[in-house]
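Structure tokens please, single chain.
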Amino acid sequence: MRTSRSKHHRSPGRALSTKLSLAVLGTTFAVPTLAALSVVALDVVKQRERKKRQAARPGMFGSQVEGSELSIYTDGGTLYDDMIAAIDSAEHSVMMETYIWKNDEAGQRFIDAFNAAARRGVDVYVTYDGFGNLVVPSSFYRQLDDAVNVFRMPAIGRKVWQGPLRYTGLNHSKILVIDDEIGFVGGFNIGSLYAREWRDTHLREVGPVAWGLRQSIARLWNEDRDPSRQIPWTPPPSWDPAVRVAANLPIELVYPIRNMYLRAIERASHRIWIATPYFIPDQQILIALIEASKRGVDVRVMVPEESNHVISDWVSRGFFAQMHRAEITILLYTNSMMHSKTATIDGEWSTIGTANIDRLSLSLNYETNVEIMDPGFAAEMEKVFEADAEQSRRLSSEEWDTRNTLTRAIEWALVPLRPLL
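Here you go.
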């Protein structure tokens, strides 16, 4: 008589296959984790020998574009002064969205300015990221008056179960809009460190493009909010401006900044100059840059020699060999931490904003970039890039090809982290 096999019985072959699968899975995560811990430990040791340096300040640059006055800031102190002055002059509305907001002298100035504006009857809306400010005590933000409308994007407890891609993005935008007429956007977070020791870039716009920045803030603020507390819609001043705003909105799975970059890179015929603190591109962005270089475009990518995220530095270096083979110029900014998120192409197209060239910024986070089609403004952007290039060194193929075996092994081990950064 044939006996039935228990439903809980597993054949030896199947059990062995399961064990092998678990072993492979464990190795897949263990190798990059060990490599990441190693580079972090090495960075902790190296930090003891580093000296804090004041960031270079190339100066102010600007241009007029279709009735808008555009100013490029490379100095955080000057930027904060002008932002506070704009808040102090507000008559109707103040809207801010930021990633990091430190509880220091610079941060306190904004607390005081928002409170003063609200007390004189201005509508004040403030959004900041919970994850980006985990180390900042909540008592700092409780200084804001009840009249200030505040939204702290939660670090945890969001509706991730309803859609992981929709609810896991960080609020990485840094925007300030005053009276729907003056807009600021760029890489500067709020804090004394960023003003003094980081090289960053921000844009001020006086004129029509402020509508796009306002809309970027309003779309996030109004999501799942009672209509009585929403920021009201206003009509744009023009339908097809030369200065446009591209804003990622993860809650709606909208990510236009990546497409903005791809579209511009694919059009390039002369030069592509990019500055980004973290260069971890997806394959489409990387291939577009390589193809541009192959057709004779002068492609330059500027990154900090040592950023504030050592793992990102190492993952980024994993692309350098491929970039060198394509004759893409790699510039390592040596003066300080370089945090600019800018690009200019062919003396025609430029962008300044909050998005890095990495997976988090282009495919996950709330980000805001301004896109400018204007030769005069592009000329100003090239001046900024050239000034920063003077504080950089070109990484040669010879130097890169002679790096030691351990360095190559760590770069290889960190490859699985690319989609996560």
